Amino acid sequence: MSSNSKLLILGNGFDLQCSLKSSFDDFMKTRLAKVDEVDNLFKRLHNLPDITVTRPDQSTIGGNALSYWLWEKGLTVWDFIFYEDKQKRTWYDIEDCIRTWVDYRLVPENAFNKPPIQQICLDYEHSDHQKGLYINPPIEAKQCVLVYACDFYYWNGKPEMLLSILLDQLHHYEKAFAVYLQEQVDKNHEYSSLATSLLLNLVNDQSSTPALKANSYDKQYLGNPESINILDFNYTYPIMEDWANKPDCLNVHGLANKGNIIFGIDGTRLKTTHECYANIVKFTKTYRLMALSRNPHRSLVRPYLSYSSIGATDMIKFFGHSLGDADYSYFQAIFDGVDLYESNTRLIFYYNEYRRNTKKKNDKAKSAQEEMFEKVYNLISTYGQTLNSKDHGRNLLHKLLLEGRLTIKQSPIYPNHDYYQEY
After folding, report:
1. pLDDT-based confidence at 43, cuts 50/70/90?
2. Residue 79 belongs to what domain range?
3. Quick check: 419 and 212 in contact, CB under 8 A?
4. Engineering a disulfide at 26: which of 21, 49, 272, 416 sits with its beta carbon 3.0 to 4.6 angstroms away?
5. pLDDT tens digits for range 333-387
6. Which residues contact 398 (CB under 8 A, 6 or more apart)?
7. DSSP string, 195-206
8. Backbone angles phi, psi at 196, to 5 degrees
């Protein structure tokens, strides 16, 4: 028997399709503009004016050091870490970059490349930090971390404290991104209408009758909104907040307008025996989610129970999500919940050949489609490895295809007036 329950999973591609400048690339342009502002001042005057800044403990420090000016502009060490990381891979991979920095392990002294934190600890040992540290443009990430730690946090040279400093700086970076994102939402007057249209299309696609309609006159959702659950990995709310009969939506990593967004790493492979585990675990999404204050919400997934006449969640739809490792633990929990191998749950993955954020002009459809094929193959294959039965794990993808429970298709992005009721 059908459960008449649907789960829609949204990633940043949803906001980008709704013309919101929500990418890290757009945000970092505003941050780098602050760096350029200080850099140009430095080049013009050759000697920056004195400035007094406030440390995290509310004490003050003054002078003309470049770091003081960067601190005054609200720039964090992560601005420089993320930018430097992008130069190596040409795109911003926030979670992988954080993991590279905080996944601290001691390595042999003769190792050619030491982990960033270990290298900074060594630099501290060989620097005359009692006399102050100074940096000049161009600003190297490890140098910036060392200077910030010594000048503003009274660092003792230990990796545990340095990890705590990096976490505090990450909190500041998150708050800056939340402010930026809310400003983009406030400036984009079309976002709400575009988000509503795209949401209705995704929810109702592959359904014989519309499960959700919008009535803007009465400010309410119609249809069967209680059958719809939304797991949103964005920091924005895709539903009209002041409307009645809203579907249940969980912004898993917080909301920009609440100022409680989080960036973090997947802690699946982190072991308690790990070097500096107590400090590193605070960077994981699971640990940080526990600290978020959340309103109660109903379960997003209807589980598969072999003895129940009500089936598991009918459909799980994915739109605009990278399906990357950083969020794998969420997908594993969802697939486990519906017992993907035994249930009748369908998976629908949408690609978008008309992505507004793409810079490619040629062969976009093929590129988007092939990209999604590869992501889905990796996701299902990786999940299959976690099943108790190795045979089930190896043939999971074939089983889904044979049973018609796996669909990869172009997303419905154009407005459908059948989903609106204006009286």
Report:
1. confident
2. 24-183
3. yes
4. 21
5. 999 999 999 999 999 999 998 776 554 444 444 589 999 999 999 999 999 999 9
6. none
7. HHHHHHHHHHTT
8. -65, -45
Q: Is residue 267 part of a domain?
A: no
Q: What is the pTM of this model?
A: 0.90
Q: Which of 286, 278, 293, 82 is nearest to 164 (CA)?
A: 278
* C-alpha R_g of the chain: 24
Q: Are residues 86 and 196 in the same domain?
A: no
Decide if 265 contacts 102 (C-beta within 8 A).
yes
Q: 272 lies in a domain? A: no
- CB atoms under 10 Å from CB of 211, counted, come to 21
Indicate whether 365 belongs to any domain: yes
CA dihedral 121, 126, 132, 137 (to 10 degrees): -80
Structure tokens at 182: 């809310």
For the chain, the helix, strand and coil percentages under 3-state DSSP, each to the nearest 5: 45, 10, 40
Residue owning tokens 């949204």: 10
Per-residue pLDDT reduced to its tens digit, 311-340: 789 999 999 999 988 788 889 999 999 999
- Whether residues 334 and 404 share a domain: the answer is yes
CA distance 234 to 253: 7
Q: Of 277, 290, 325, nearest to 103 (Cα)?
A: 277
